[in-house]
């Protein structure tokens, strides 16, 4: 209830601070009998870990995951699965005036106002580092959904600052440091130069990320409040730095006519997907398509005006290891959140309606 | 858990179908001792009720609310407040082939796929009519928040189809049928003509709605999953026909630099509000600003291809009383959802941190 | 979260006060496609309603239930089922000093202390009348469990004051006003005389009630906190006037040796049932056996010392229509609570583990 | 929802198996700003740890707790507090036929039936070892309740098998290996001889434990389902081996008359405490008194008949380190559960009603 548990039936309760002894999570509700080991989880953590290119933070964290419970002889037992990731890069550095001042764009002021105390080391609990345990948990959800329904998750960057990244194919997202779903080498170079310039300027930039789930069973989502799209919006807006969420046609729907937007249906299936795979809060069986807006990193080397705990004006300038575009590493995180939402709704669905049997309705 | 309860500490559990005997809700967790009667609730219901202009559905529903419990001698007692709204306009008409076919853009296919059964009368549970009980519940939340913190809610339409509606002042939203926050008579005429043309075409259109909460206490929001912005996104995306949600700068953040986006702080307060009043998932005390994209009404008089329950192709054409732009009546609904989120978080905050005492930090 | 919702997946949210306009509940999570009408619910309400013998309160309430939603053409749709029971016997009598004084043994002092306000009419929210909606909701659960697993619920009184009621057969519970599972006419006469004497004395008495569920599937219960027995204890202790709960051997376990208590297992099944059908918090497939202690009615005609809102001493004497033994009408309520717990756990079980397929393990 | 989280606002999510790498928990919702270190928690763990006398299991576990998060510079920050206890005594012994057979009285059969798989090492998740993390979490709750209200928790054994232990004073519970609240040396000797004889017989025995909370604020408890007594019953019945729970007069209420049971009130306070400190599900401000029945340990050296996974009859005999009376170590666990319930309800109360200000009502 204090906000550190995600999900209702497949729950992920995380703990930890950026520079504390460890981060991790407890996953409850995992169906029993599924093969599981650290080898299923580590690759997902590696996709989002820092230090993999010059365009992201140079913090070195192996993010090695240990399964503490819930698995016996290589299979899930139905009991809680605890994941532990020790923080290795706890630099006992001087945090300087960060502990006394509120960095613009950061959660410093709000945590301090809410709790009367905050852990300033590396952003404490509000650090994007805390997305690691969820990515780990989502690896378990992804595996189950894949085995059960064939569901898969893909994602990539569709815009970096002012630069649009036309979609070519999801597999290209793994071929460049930006998760850009394109094989256009010139465009990749443009993105790299853009980032290099930005770093020189000591500034940062936003990004737009798209994620998609394929082979989604029909019928997931609990109207009228825990709609599938509502829970996706909740999951996405909860990711650090996200300021906007779209499902399907998103904000383009505003200027669309009903005769254009409403996806017609034929015996072979839906004709379009303006709905983004969700109608009335329930999955249609089409691809679920989501876009998110990620704000520019708040930690920049450009001096900015702020105040300290006594309300006195100060100038704040951030040094050290920071992603100049937090959007770059956001793709695996957004995929993870989408997977957790679908996993949770798959279990919720069968609680009320019994096991999902996708109607082989359309002549696909 | 089956999705018909909104909130965690101030909960609203709704029931009812568009053409059943009644709709209503049970509100649990309301603080005791607050003056309350139907007169506090009815005006909010009247703001969103149908039949108030030629641009919205002509269904005639007085939407008269009855308080069944939780109030004694004009004061809340801390026990559940049940609201009942009898459906008066239950036309026992022939629903015709609607019961056997899936209307494009509607929840017909998904409800039927999920539950194996659906109530087709007026959209059943998926009807926008079900926003009435929440608007009623939110009237209670609004009253408490106003008394406790001075918090107020405002909203209006910022775009109708392709037509942008430049903001002038919130009070104008009550002066025209579109909730347009403008006194520009020519623009209102343009909107009216636009809607008239649309009706003649038998088509519908989308809209963009903005809502704002003012005098919000600092410190509301539960990181790291039940962030205030995450819960707002959940609430908004759960409204019928919403396809996109933005907080603060929203999708504009994508092309912003950190040196532009991050709101600087001075001893007098924040310099800007790209954050939309929320940092790290916790309210900053600034205005909370939200925008939503609403898709065009799916029920249109233009024939569209679809299928029936046997998978056979059919043409679907909707007659009767439908909003050609569901966005027109969405403003009070969006305000209501925002109020419910803030109410819930106000109670959650004081559970953990004690009563909210907004630091008189800034020299406002 | 404010305590007026029972259950997690099959939830019952109740509302109403003893003398308000209506009481009722919203049931969420009911599986779709089950035949349901008021005729399934009314008989259960009739079993617990007042005025059926001279040994219970003479309040006349038909307790007629109306289904407001969630049923279409005689079948559940998977959407919330709202039940409404109008209070007919709202005597606008003078409640006299009850409104200013705290009756011993009642919730008057605690409600007033907690909320700073209380509805004194007939006990307000704390009245046993509020068990009616749950009994109605449980009728739905019972029907589903019966159809799905053959599960049935039985119960009766095993002790009235000092008088033990030896068990003969459950069906006898329907044959006398005490729900006594005996055909011993002399014993029934003894109970009647006992009650008559008590009424003459203006006093009241406690009772012990036993309930049993048969044909329970194996595997229900969520360790290690939401154990089946823990949830049963929660449900039972939450019934008005209950002061003790036992599962299986209950307090007799204290003096039992392990070699006696632990139920041995053979290829034909368990040899005994000291466990009461639950091991490690999970159902074994045996009968679930529960006993509860019900305190004597607090409202008695004997004058008792108490205080008023100003802390001044007063004498309190209760007149009017009260059950001299609330335990007499408790059997259908205890059955109802047990049914709600099993229903909820049946849905929870299949969420995580898939549909229950009771292993045909034993050669029964 | 899968049952491994205790509480609603002050939540404890546990993980781990008896012989896995580690056990632990995540505590969410702790108020910020409280001094906290391992030194506050370790003493409570030491009270319940095994190996402290010859009358309990000789398993040697230091149960050393590590705080992984939620504390900064010695103070709670309001973020999740993770506790980790590494299992040191993981004997990689041959579990022999335990893995293939179902021990009578244990959860072996039910876990296997529910999940289709079970971790047989030391009872896996169903081991009483899993009470350690909760005891750790409760140490935090106890500290907060003590500071905030002066609330304290005491407990002890009131019956061992057939031997009643008359209460003298709580402090004596710390002076003997049975948590017996008596200074009667002859009685202690009798208990020791009783246990020695039992061990020689290879048998086990039940016990009755009483716990009490003092200085409880008035007004805790959420009617009408999340009553304080209902949640206490839930908490207590969820402890391993508990088969019965009583509040106040408990099962003695059955034979009590209303004129005896109902506690009268005077300007100086309540005259008696048959209510056990709770009326209408809400605390009265009196001591909360609870009794629980604990069944005899199921693991005994006496051979017992059972079956294996193939349904074949087998004889089961347990060797090794087991408590011959699990009740002996139950006192700190029962105190812990009571503390967690009160902590949770303290936060729930102030969510709805604001900070608890116990009315200085009585002239105490």
From TrEMBL, chains A, B, C, D:
<keyword id="KW-0521">NADP</keyword>
<keyword id="KW-0274">FAD</keyword>
<keyword id="KW-0057">Aromatic amino acid biosynthesis</keyword>
<dbReference type="InterPro" id="IPR035904">
    <property type="entry name" value="Chorismate_synth_AroC_sf"/>
</dbReference>
<feature type="binding site">
    <location>
        <begin position="295"/>
        <end position="299"/>
    </location>
    <ligand>
        <name>FMN</name>
    </ligand>
</feature>
<comment type="similarity">
    <text>Belongs to the chorismate synthase family.</text>
</comment>
<feature type="binding site">
    <location>
        <begin position="240"/>
        <end position="241"/>
    </location>
    <ligand>
        <name>FMN</name>
    </ligand>
</feature>
<keyword id="KW-0288">FMN</keyword>
<dbReference type="InterPro" id="IPR020541">
    <property type="entry name" value="Chorismate_synthase_CS"/>
</dbReference>
<feature type="binding site">
    <location>
        <begin position="125"/>
        <end position="127"/>
    </location>
    <ligand>
        <name>FMN</name>
    </ligand>
</feature>
<dbReference type="GO" id="GO:0004107">
    <property type="term" value="F:chorismate synthase activity"/>
</dbReference>
<protein>
    <recommendedName>
        <fullName>Chorismate synthase</fullName>
        <ecNumber>4.2.3.5</ecNumber>
    </recommendedName>
</protein>
<keyword id="KW-0285">Flavoprotein</keyword>
<keyword id="KW-0028">Amino-acid biosynthesis</keyword>
<feature type="binding site">
    <location>
        <position position="321"/>
    </location>
    <ligand>
        <name>FMN</name>
    </ligand>
</feature>
<dbReference type="Pfam" id="PF01264">
    <property type="entry name" value="Chorismate_synt"/>
</dbReference>
<feature type="region of interest" description="Disordered">
    <location>
        <begin position="43"/>
        <end position="62"/>
    </location>
</feature>
<feature type="binding site">
    <location>
        <position position="280"/>
    </location>
    <ligand>
        <name>FMN</name>
    </ligand>
</feature>
<comment type="subunit">
    <text>Homotetramer.</text>
</comment>
<keyword id="KW-0456">Lyase</keyword>
<feature type="binding site">
    <location>
        <position position="54"/>
    </location>
    <ligand>
        <name>NADP(+)</name>
    </ligand>
</feature>
<dbReference type="InterPro" id="IPR000453">
    <property type="entry name" value="Chorismate_synth"/>
</dbReference>
<comment type="pathway">
    <text>Metabolic intermediate biosynthesis; chorismate biosynthesis; chorismate from D-erythrose 4-phosphate and phosphoenolpyruvate: step 7/7.</text>
</comment>
<feature type="binding site">
    <location>
        <position position="48"/>
    </location>
    <ligand>
        <name>NADP(+)</name>
    </ligand>
</feature>
<comment type="function">
    <text>This reaction introduces a second double bond into the aromatic ring system.</text>
</comment>
């Amino acid at each position: 209830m204090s906000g550190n548990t995600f999900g209702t039936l497949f729950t992920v309760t995380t703990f930890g601070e950026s520079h504390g002894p460890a981060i991790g999570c407890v996953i409850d509700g995992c169906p029993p009998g599924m093969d599981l080991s650290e080898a299923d989880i580590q690759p997902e953590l590696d996709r989002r870990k820092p230090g993999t290119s010059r365009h992201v933070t140079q913090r070195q964290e192996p993010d090695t995951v240990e399964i503490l419970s819930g698995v016996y002889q290589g299979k899930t037992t139905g009991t809680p699965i605890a994941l532990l990731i020790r923080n290795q890069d706890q630099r006992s550095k001087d945090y300087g005036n960060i502990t006394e001042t509120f960095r613009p764009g950061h959660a410093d002021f709000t945590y301090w106002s809410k709790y009367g105390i905050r852990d300033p080391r590396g952003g404490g609990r509000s650090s994007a580092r805390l997305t690691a345990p969820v990515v780990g948990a989502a690896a378990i959800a992804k595996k189950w959904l894949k085995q059960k329904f064939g569901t898969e998750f893909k994602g990539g960057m569709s815009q970096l600052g002012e630069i649009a990244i036309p979609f070519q194919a999801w597999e290209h997202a793994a071929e460049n440091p930006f998760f850009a779903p394109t094989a256009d080498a010139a465009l990749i170079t443009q993105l790299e130069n853009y980032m290099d310039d930005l770093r020189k300027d000591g500034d940062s930039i936003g990004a737009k990320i798209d994620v998609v789930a394929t082979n989604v069973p029909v019928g997931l989502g609990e109207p009228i409040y825990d709609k599938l799209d509502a829970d996706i919006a909740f999951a996405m807006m909860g990711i650090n730095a996200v300021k906007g969420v779209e499902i399907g046609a998103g904000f383009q729907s505003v200027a669309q006519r009903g005769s254009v937007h409403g996806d017609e249906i034929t015996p072979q299936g839906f004709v379009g997907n303006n709905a983004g795979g969700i109608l009335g809060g329930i999955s249609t069986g089409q691809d679920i398509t989501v876009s998110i807006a990620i704000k520019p990193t708040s930690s920049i080397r450009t001096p900015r005006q702020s105040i300290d705990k006594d309300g006195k004006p100060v100038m704040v300038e951030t040094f050290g290891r920071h992603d100049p575009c937090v959007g770059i590493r956001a793709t695996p995180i957004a995929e993870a959140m989408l997977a957790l939402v679908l996993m949770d709704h798959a279990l919720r669905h069968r609680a009320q309606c019994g096991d999902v049997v996708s109607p082989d309705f359309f002549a696909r």
